Amino acid sequence: MKTTTTWQTDQIVWWKGSAINRQSKEFQDLIRRAYRAMFEQNERFRIALMSTRGMKLYHSRGEHNPYKTILTESEYCTVLTEIRDTYNISKNEASMRKKRLYFDMDGVLTDFESALAEQDEQTLKEYVGRYDEIPGLFGQMLPMDGAIDAVRRLSEHYDCYILSTAPWKNPSAWSDKVMWVTRYLDDVFHKRMVITHCKNLCKGDILIDDRGKNGTSEFEGEWIQFGSERFPNWESVLDYLLPVK
Ligand SMILES: [Mg+2]
After folding, report:
1. Would you call 104 a catalytic residue per the annotation?
2. Which residues, other chains included, contact 101 with Cβ-Cβ below 8 Å and sequence gap of 6+?
3. What confidence score (pLDDT) does residue 39 get?
């Protein structure tokens, strides 16, 4: 069995079954790749290194002789300085952050018809042609088939928010929607809710909405039209949005 210092005799180190000369460019590239991967995957390391911007790095206890150590203090500090100084903060944070995903409510998360079925005849008669003004209606809706499970699965991969519109002439709809979210999906959407008639003003990557109204068709990101031929149900949306395993 080789001892840890055997490499100092032949200057050969091993990586995934391949022999690499300690003094080669290949070895230097491997070290760079390893530190870069740690920088990208370990947030604490990234924050610590980036907090040294503008400073010169030293490694006070490092070995100087490349024939005696697999990483000299000079190599170590050079690699870290390179990674730090070539890191484009805005670009990399954008690529590393989760995409922002908005969910419409009516016809996407909530089943409008299910609440109508709960109304008495008198109410339906009074509000004919303007059912969305029935007080309390929006708190009585049942979740759409598969919606709850779909939201929870998507929330593992996306930065999720509600983006819904409440009827202007039905003030209770605004609070009813908050109550619905609190009741069914508070674990995902707690304080992550936008109610507006101007959905196009919200910054984000994807909006799942059944209609193009209230700014949806002008949304800056991708509009996934729920209920369309392409996305008839939650299964088809999950197939499209979840990463392939
Ligand atoms: Mg809708």
Report:
1. yes
2. 154, 158, 159, 160, 161, 204, 205, 206, 207, 208, 241
3. 92
